[in-house]
Design a protein that fits this description.
The complex is a heterodimer of chains A (778) and B (160).
Chain A (H helix, E strand, L loop, with lengths): L17 H6 L14 E7 L5 E7 L1 H5 L3 E6 L23 E2 L5 E7 L2 H10 L1 E6 L6 H6 L14 E9 L2 H6 L3 E8 L12 E7 L4 E6 L4 H12 L6 E4 L15 H13 L3 E4 L2 H6 L7 E9 L5 E13 L5 H10 L9 E10 L14 H18 L3 H8 L5 E2 L5 E2 L4 H12 L1 H4 L7 E12 L13 E8 L3 E5 L9 H13 L6 E4 L17 H28 L6 E4 L2 E4 L6 E3 H12 L2 E7 L25 E13 L6 E11 L6 H20 L29 E6 L22 H13 L10 H20 L1
Parallel strand pairs in A: 1-12, 10-11, 14-15, 20-21, 27-28
Antiparallel strand pairs in A: 1-5, 2-4, 2-6, 3-5, 7-15, 8-13, 9-10, 9-12, 13-14, 16-17, 18-26, 19-20, 19-25, 22-23, 23-24, 26-27
Helix pairs in contact in A: 6-7, 10-11, 10-18, 14-15, 15-16, 17-18
Chain B lengths: L1 E8 L2 E8 L4 H8 L18 E4 L2 E4 L12 E3 L12 H8 L9 H14 L5 H7 L11 H16 L4
Parallel strand pairs in B: 1-5
Antiparallel strand pairs in B: 1-2, 3-4, 3-5
Helix pairs in contact in B: 2-5
The chains are: A alpha+beta (778), B alpha+beta (160).
The complex binds FE2/S2 (inorganic) cluster (2 copies).
Amino acid sequence: MNKPNYTQVGRSVPRIDGPLKVKGEAIYTDDMVLPRMAYGKIKRSPYAHAIIKKIDYSKALELPGVIAVITGEDGPNKWGIVPQTANEVALAVGKVRFWGEGVAAVAAIDEETAEAALDLIEVEYEPLPVLLDPQESMQRANEVRIHEDAPENILHAGEQLFGDPDKAFAECTYVLEKEFHTSYVNHAFLEPHTALASFDTPSGQLQMWSSTQVPHYLHRQLSIVLEMPMNKIRVTLPAIGGAFGGKGEASPADFCAALLSRKIGRPVKVTYERSEVFATNKGRHPCHMKMKIGLDQDGYIQAIDFDNTLDGGAYAGWGIVVMFYTASMIHLPYKVPNARARVRRVYTNKPTCGAMRGLGGVQPRYAMECMLDEMAEMVGISPYELKMKNAVESGYLSVSNLHVPHTEYKKCLQTAVEKSGYLEKHGKLPFGKGIGLAGGYYISGTAYTLYQAYKPHTTVLIRVDTEGGVTVHCAAADIGQGCNTVMAQMAAEELGIRYEDVHVVSGDTETGTFDLGSFASRLTYASGVAIKDAAAQINQKLKEVAAGMVGCRADQLEIKDGRFYSKFEPKKAIEWEKVVDVYTNAVGTLVGIGHFSPPRLKGIDLTRGKRVQGANIGHSPTFGFSCQIWEVDVDLETGKIRVAKVTEAGDCGQAVNPMSVDGQVEGSIMFAMGQALYEEMRLDAEGKMINASLHDYKVPTAMELPEIDTTIVDSYDPTAPFGVKESGEGPVQPTIPAITNAVYDAIGVRFTDLPITPEKVLRALKEKQALNSECSGS
Amino acid sequence: MEKTINLTVNGETRSIAVDVNQTLLEVLREDLGLTGTKKGCNQGECGACTVLMDGKPVSSCLVLAVKADGKTVMTIEGVAKDGSLHPIQETFNQKGAIQCGFCTPGMILTTKNLLDKNPNPSLGEIKEAISGNICRCTGYVQIIEAITSLAKEKNARGGV
Ligand code: FES
Ligand code: FES
């Protein structure tokens, strides 16, 4: 199918919230101050695992300026993003399970007083043994149990079997088996979590403003914890200072603000310190993975066996979803006829892991792309050739029932290889310099939904009248990724007007229509379908009016550039505004409403529970693909890895806003580079985090920025609205293995755990040297 | 303990009673309502709270308000003139140098200082200048492109 000629989609335009942001006038939650507002602070546990024997806050209450104190008992209902595994509480009840877990919260007239009050709260703990390693946690489960209902210290374990991998392996010419370990990293979004709750006692209404990427989920969780009907709660999102998955669940800040506000009948704001962002984490799961891949004599993948132990930390969170995602992610972007995944998500006494940009894909991708790099060497071909051979094509259906309607993955590989000169450089650079290639993909348009029903994931309402012009309503969350701008572009395209003339009302559960939230790279696709649907209804009604004005049949009218015109005689035209005027004068405000539900594929079985294979990834209507090639210089003296250049080529379908896609890709590259080379949260033996600050937890600055060359490959998914796919999470997938492969090319050492620090590089170089001299000595 | 300080903020002279351990960031945000200055870490590590004090970028979370006595402070709210965007603001907006926008105020002030001092910075100088301002969203590329294009414009206009 040919790409239509778009005018608004495919345009690099500034964000609609750009001017406010550059002026410093965008309002974030912590910028808000309400009359009589109190400040909330949370008292946190110094132990990673302990029984709470007693909490005495009488002294805190005596401190002038303190208004109220709450503990876990004030809101003990369990919440959780996944209803079946909900096991978190606003504040600890009876026991703490990680360092920094909240045990009490204070509301006071100012922050200083609230902080002073925290010191006056006396908590008596009985420390318990601390389990920080998932293997140890499973082994010692008889003796130390983190959750009563998880006797093995395992949240959940699963197995997915497709085809007959054992038989396939037996017939393979090349088989490789390796272990990989990924690190414990945090999103480090710039704006700490913050929540402002205002409970109106007479009406029983709660208004929340929160830094969240999931207004709807927060809405629901508040209703559970506060035991209030959802229709008494309104969640509003001010500007959000980044999220990357870290605001993809409610946070105790939300619950504490709301509980305190209800208790004192005054607005309460809770804003985290940076150390609290680390303490409440929800970052990427460290994965301990064993992977086995088998190729036939020609280098075609025949089987994959994947075993993954996910270190989940203290609570369930997104855990079960992440776990199944890791299992499902091995089925693309290569053709894998036989596969088995055994996965388990284990509790430890660490701040909980959750969703982080590229959830569930980054870890198995690291293992798989590194192994294929190595296996190409076994086969005696270049990694590029091996990946091209195995790459999926449009129309592919995996054994796990993932359906790929459209892909330009091969074009991504080709483009990056050509632009970087990979084939001329790989294996041929001097010792210390290397080049590495990796590919990746991500789901697009689906999402884990807590509704075990066919409830649409997104609803868009478009309103047209002479007063407000065009307004798109949808409770989606613009967390910085730019969905408001993209929604305006898509609506404008469909209505035949300019994006500058579209207002977007989002991020509010009252003025916006239902949306699941900003995660899983779903919004462009999902809102695109709903917008098309809503706009079609509006166009139909306006065309009927315009037909009389233009003097031709409604079905012969086109709408573009703000005009209705006859497709046979384009000169017969009438301005869009005039048609709206006539319509609304006669009938009143015009609305269209559209919905999106992902298609139901066989990869998931919601009704029979246990037989689910492939998690919700099975619903993904399409997938984004990309390839990255990294060039590195390894300093043999210091062990430092300097990245010289990154060449990226991505298939995001039709880019709605190419400038914004570039921003997503570049941001992803630097984000993932941090995990590959620098970032790791570290705990001492007692489970206390020792680097819970941006001073000690190093994220990349502009100084680490390499040269980055990105290409949006020409792509259009004919099954997708406007031909779109995701671009915000796919580009984090290839980064870590591409760097690892480049380092291997440079010094012949393959790092199988992260981050690849200078110390590890130096140690590896030393070992290599010792080995070499041993060999030459014998 | 309170002390009264006099400072010029965005061209206006203000006299404010501050607590001796209040930071400039707190005074700007809480006492003066200038919430464009952001708090990302409160430890001098992220640059979100950057303001210009006597023309130089400082992390306002590390500056005690009493130390700002007698100084001239520019916050993001003082960058646009008469409602129209400063060229740096305009260019950041046009070039996609903003995503969540939380680093933006600090980044713009750091850029202003850089270009005021050095209208033609090299890539290395740009990177170094903004290295104290963390941006977790953009990967810095479009920010640097914005700054580079401003430098070019400045040069073309004869270094205004
Ligand atoms: S808030 Fe001042 S440097 Fe981060
Ligand atoms: S735009 Fe989000 S931190 Fe820079």
